[in-house]
């Protein structure tokens, strides 16, 4: 009776274990369903089941811990390398965050030659952006390092760095910057300088009319034509004067001539030749050849016959020349009549034209003619007869394109 009573409770407990579907595997449940012949066998079976379940729990815990370690490590490395978009975004926002909205307008000046780091420091000093790091982050994000423009910009306090970068790379937003371009004349430059600086143009004209005034080298003969170096100049400073602007342009030209190795005493002549090249050439590949034509004609005591020179003397474009202008001997710049170089350069030549004036290509050419205005194709020859054939080819192109009349 006693054994039967104990067996009854052992069987009942076994049934409770075997019904535990949440933790037992299918194989374990099959094993549990096998008949048990003694309490010792039942206890042994329970011990084995418990051991397997504990091992399974330990395995799961270890797996979860390892997975968490891997995830943490990856995120940590990504954060250090700056590759996490979430991290980058939160960092950028923190570097740019202001409690208040954009404030009052301020004038901000970027001087020529300043790098992004220097600009960033000045922006922080004027309380336009919050941190230098935020501005440099925005510069890198927009790949704008080489696009930052010199000049005076209208900004606001407490701006986002991205917004500031957008303004500083916008050439139309820059104020107080004088842009001198290759091929421009003195008149072009001083008008642009007056507009950019706010100084009356008459002050520039007075200096030009006074001659060198200790600004120009003696070999320039008192003429500023050709002696203004192309480039960008900040003329927004309150201490800027007409004389300081002109001096800066001439000093920049002298520095460029030194850089190109054009010796003193030859500079006025080379600038003169280069200015003609600048106005006659439509493609870089022809600069050396046009330079050679000029020197060949000078050596053979021939008039240069360059329309750009005659046009400069009349204050018009080459396309506006009339027969009367071309035959007027009283115009000292009429190089169809007068031999030698014109009295002064006719524009501010760029580096390529100055280099061509120093190193003309080898050749016997005396004539050249553009035969296709669309492609710029220009032909060179030493024969006058062949030159007229080129002229006929040019006229045929004009007629074919409805431009002959």
Automatic annotation (TrEMBL):
GO terms for biological process: cell wall organization; peptidoglycan biosynthetic process. It catalyses: a peptidoglycan chain = a peptidoglycan chain with N-acetyl-1,6-anhydromuramyl-[peptide] at the reducing end + a peptidoglycan chain with N-acetylglucosamine at the non-reducing end. It is a single-pass membrane protein. GO terms for molecular function: lytic endotransglycosylase activity. It is found in: Cell membrane. Keywords: Cell membrane, Cell wall biogenesis/degradation, Lyase, Membrane, Transmembrane, Transmembrane helix. InterPro entries: MLTG-like (IPR003770). The lineage of its organism: Bacteria, Bacillati, Actinomycetota, Actinomycetes, Bifidobacteriales. The keyword Lyase applies. Functions as a peptidoglycan terminase that cleaves nascent peptidoglycan strands endolytically to terminate their elongation. Pfam families: YceG. Its EC number is 4.2.2.29. One of its GO terms (cellular component) is plasma membrane. This is Endolytic murein transglycosylase. The keyword DNA repair does not apply. The record marks 280 as: Important for catalytic activity. Residues 25-45 are annotated as: Disordered. The chain crosses the membrane at residues 55-74. Belongs to the transglycosylase MltG family.
